[in-house]
Amino acid sequence: MSSIDWLAFSRALDKIQFIEKPKQVKRLSQDYYHFSPILQDLLADKQAKMIVQPKSEAEVITVVAACVQQNIPLTVRGAGTGNYGQCIPLEGGIVLDMSLMNKVDWFAPGVASVQPGVKLVDIDRVTRPSGWEIRMAPSTYRTATIGGFIGGGSGGIGSVTYGQLRDRGNLRAVRVVTMEDQPQVLELRGDEVYQVAHAYGTNGIITELEIPLAPAYAWAEVIVTFDDFMQAARFGQALGDADGLIKKLVTVFADPIPSYFAAFQDVIPSQSHCAFLMVSEESIAPLQELVREFQGSIVYEKSAEEASRGVAIYEYTWNHTTLHARAIDPNITYLQTLFPGDHDLNLVEHMYRHFGDEVMMHLEFMRVGGRATPAALQLLRYSTPERLQAIIQYHESQGAIIFNPHTYLLEDGGMKQVDVAQLRFKEKVDPYGLMNPGKMRAWQERWAEG
Question: Which residue range or ranges hold the FAD-binding PCMH-type domain (predicted)?
Fold first, then answer.
């Protein structure tokens, strides 16, 4: 980095907004990596030299050209709500903060064209009055940006109906700026979008996205309690499989997880297992029948109008569950697990009984291969790195798939295999390896082998 002429770089930015104040640079170089005790040690001292905040695609191109000229690493940032260090600059350089590119350019029935820095909640504010909304969102819906979600996310609220971001049809098109001597703007459509989706910004800077929309429903919020965890889990599976009930969220918590939710202490009886649900208002009556079938008790119910004010139950699900638990006990961390083909929940039950309170069961039902499937973001009482690894290995030995949240490497946190299409695209659009360096294992191995 000593050879970089930062004064010349800042002059090349012309009138593009940038930040050099150390406290702001530190804050904008971080995300929620501290959820992981492993990542805490690895990433605590990583930060950029400068934060650059473009307002247009043309400004992005100017920044990229200046970075290439000076050989400056560039790491793209949305709102920094990720948990794996996706937007943390391992090799310094600049963070390209996309939050000022925050417009919904246009929308029509079923589709919207948006800039990467627009918040998910703001997309819905524009589209919902016309009867449309985004298909899925993380629990950080109020603060996350669409570019960050596409670049680093995988699913969320809405996935019980629409699957995961990587499923064909959940992203229509992207515009991408390359990091070459002469930066180009490429438009990717159809399956080509997955060359850059969920790639942590390692192989393209997204400047525009075309996303599908879903019909907007009046979403009611419901909490159901159960005396037995497996009864709660089977209820969740049945609701996920109930095609006639319109739902957006099916979350199941084992006791003692609800005890970490201060907002619901007067609602959820102690030592209860429970389900947090978002269903369409017209689905409430058949939902009540399903609850009775599984001997549950509805302890909380809000209409869509009531749910639009105050506490939102989705902010206690997905990764927010870990956030609330860590506020009470900072020694808690988490796993991310898929139980493929486990529609009888035998593997879920085995893990629940095998680990007990050491790995507290938290299920999120999502649509995988056309059927509701249990995934988990279990809360884990952390002791040592060795014990954490042993827990991960045991899950994998029994047929569960772990999406490891304790690594910043793109492949190791996901399917554990190289995405050749993403690697080939990076070779084409980032020949100097300046985009978010250190995060794509395939790129590092390519050079090591060479």
Answer: 44-216
> Do 88 and 139 fall within a single domain?
no
The CATH number covering residue 286 comes to: 3.40.462.40
The answer as to whether 437 is a domain residue is: no
CB 258 within 8 A of CB 264: yes
Side-chain half-sphere CA neighbours of 391 within 13 A: 28
Q: Are 162 and 135 in contact (CB under 8 A)?
A: yes
Of residues 137, 135, 36, 18, the one with CA closest to residue 83: 36
Q: Does residue 112 sit in the same domain as residue 27?
A: no
- Distance, in Å, from the CA atom of 137 to the CA atom of 154, rounded to the nearest integer, reads 9
Q: Is residue 410 part of a domain?
A: no
Q: 418 or 130, which is more confident?
A: 130
What's the CA angle centered on 376, arms 366 and 357, to 5 degrees?
150
Q: Considering the entire predicted model, what is its pTM? A: 0.95
Q: How confident is the model at residue 1 (pLDDT cuts 50, 70, 90)?
A: very low
Q: Mutual orientation of helices 284-293 and 229-241 as an angle, nearest 10°? A: 140
429 confidence band (pLDDT: 50, 70, 90): very high
240 and 350 in a single domain? The answer is: yes
Does residue 380 sit within a domain?
Answer: yes
> Which residues span the domain enclosing 85?
6-97
Instruction: Give the separation between CA 171 and CA 149, rounded to whole angstroms.
Output: 11
Coil, strand, or helix at residue 70?
helix
pLDDT at 446 over 80: no
Count CB neighbours of 71 within 10 A. 12
Q: How far apart are CA 277 and CA 299, in angstroms?
A: 12
Same domain (yes/no): 253, 373: yes
Domain count, the chain: 3
> Are 138 and 153 in the same domain?
yes
